[in-house]
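Hi L.,

As promised, Pyridoxal phosphate homeostasis protein:
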Amino acid sequence: MLLVNRDLSIYYNLQLYQGEGGELGTIQLLFSFSVMLKTMSEVNVKLGLKSVLSKIQQACAKREKECCEVNPRLVAVSKTKPVESIIEAYEEGQRHFGENYVQELEEKANNSLILESCKDIKWHFIGHLQGNKVNKVISIPNLYIVETVDSKKLANKLNNNWPQFGGVAKKLRVFIQINTSGEKEKNGILPSEVVDMVKYVTNDCPNLQLDGIMTIGQYGYNPADGPNPDFLKLLECRKNVCEALSLPLKDVEISMGMSDDFEQAVEMGSTNVRVGTAIFGYRPKKTSS
């Protein structure tokens, strides 16, 4: 911020000093300003990614033994962030990226720079998915998973439409989203519906590969207050699923944890954390999807 303010001050000073010849000074300084912003972005993304990975590693060391069978996956949430920031993170070794909005995912996944520079990128759709936008999501290149399946109707549409985009040999990976907090503004099925939903996807959706379950922790919860009750509830849901289907715990992934709580989530056994702000910095609020 200091650099930006200082550069802006120079900009105004040059305008006053140049007088009628201010156009040249303005053009030169605007170029300098854009380069400066890019440099700051590079430093922030690299340091942010390195810091998050280090914290994940430290949190893994605190896990219970039964949680150590699966290493947690970091999904870098790049919503509202420019393509350049994604490429910077990719060049640092990051491969999994998450997007909340269908149109933004479409644009980024089909961006020529992304396609050329990030050939092994893996996209996670982590926002609410409406039925009329299913085809837009499942047709993007390098789609890895849809993390927010929250109804049998949506699961059925994904199952029926996937073959025309992904073929019959490859199944579409999905997570089932669970509203563990009961907050009305959040999507997801009730915890009591999980086993039935898992059975439906497993038995009636042959084109889907159920990888696990996901939740979004209650907004504003302070990890210092103890284990997040939403994470505890998701762990309970996984236990119920594994008992009902006679599955080992390691076969059902749990996607929980974001920038404010990913460390605790990893300690508690999360296999998939979705982190944006801690890597890319704060983002402006999006007014529409």
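The chain has twelve helices and eight strands.

Thanks again for sending the construct details.

K.
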